[in-house]
Amino acid sequence: MAAHAPAPHEIVDVHDVRIGAAQLPGQYVRVSGACGVTVFVHGSGSSHRSPRNRYVASVLQGCGQHTLLFDLLSDEEAAVRSNVFDIALLAGRLVQALAWLQTEQGARPLPVGLFGASTGAAAALRVAALHPEAVSAVVSRGGRPDLAGADLARVRAPTLLIVGGLDTAVIELNRAALLELRCVKQLEVVPGATHLFEEPGTLKAVARLAGRWLSQRAG
To answer: Cα dihedral angle (196, 201, 206, 212), rounded to 10 degrees?
Structure first.
């Protein structure tokens, strides 16, 4: 009897990591046959243990993406509410994560996509604008891309904005940001979803949209 063929993108290893001078905790998951790497950029009040982002990460792993989830702020920093909206600070932490990833991957790095949520989406877009050679694609989930300000017009990486259909204020902010973007871009509204995509099937829709976008543009 023939041996069972392995899945095309099985998990190869999972290991805890520490990022940057602040030694921020995270988790790096590698899969077989990977075509890219997705770095998660958490939003306000979240961490690398977020069940929502871990679910999306598992879907992306099945699409052939290594995934890196890490905390952008220490526990002490996260306790200061203003830090959550300090886009320069969050972007700086993301740059440190990309530097770590470059060292980890060595001489043959895979394309890197960024998956940002809430204020983390603005940090992802700022880094994509300032370091175009390092970012192949961006996905924003319930994000605040408007907080990236003038950097929006400088983004060259293909960008997908995903918003819940019931998240009316954020929809308008994303529509305005879409007009500012000068890259390949798309806005997807998930029907029946609020800001956190807690309604049945809505987070699955986010993961499906993100997987397709990143596989085509960061893979």
So the answer is: 170
Contact (Cβ atoms closer than 8 angstroms) between residue 41 and residue 90 = yes
φ, ψ dihedrals at 98, nearest 5°: -65, -35
Tell me if the pTM is above 0.90.
yes
Nearest to 116 by CA among 47, 41, 174, 189: 41
Instruction: Please determine, for residue 47, whether its predicted confidence score (pLDDT) is greater than 90.
Output: no
* pLDDT at 70 > cutoff 90: yes
Q: Distance between CA 174 and CA 53 in Å, rounded?
A: 20
Strands, E, within the chain: which ranges? 11-19, 24-31, 36-41, 65-70, 112-117, 137-141, 159-164, 185-190
Distance CA 114, CA 39 (A): 5
Report the C-alpha gap between 28 and 16 in whole angstroms: 6
Match domain 11-217 to its CATH number in 3.30.470.20, 3.40.50.1820, 3.30.750.24, 3.30.470.10: 3.40.50.1820
Mean predicted lDDT score pLDDT of the chain: 93
- Reduced to 3 states (helix: H, G, I; strand: E, B; else coil), residue 137 is strand
Distance (Å, whole) CA 38 – CA 110: 10
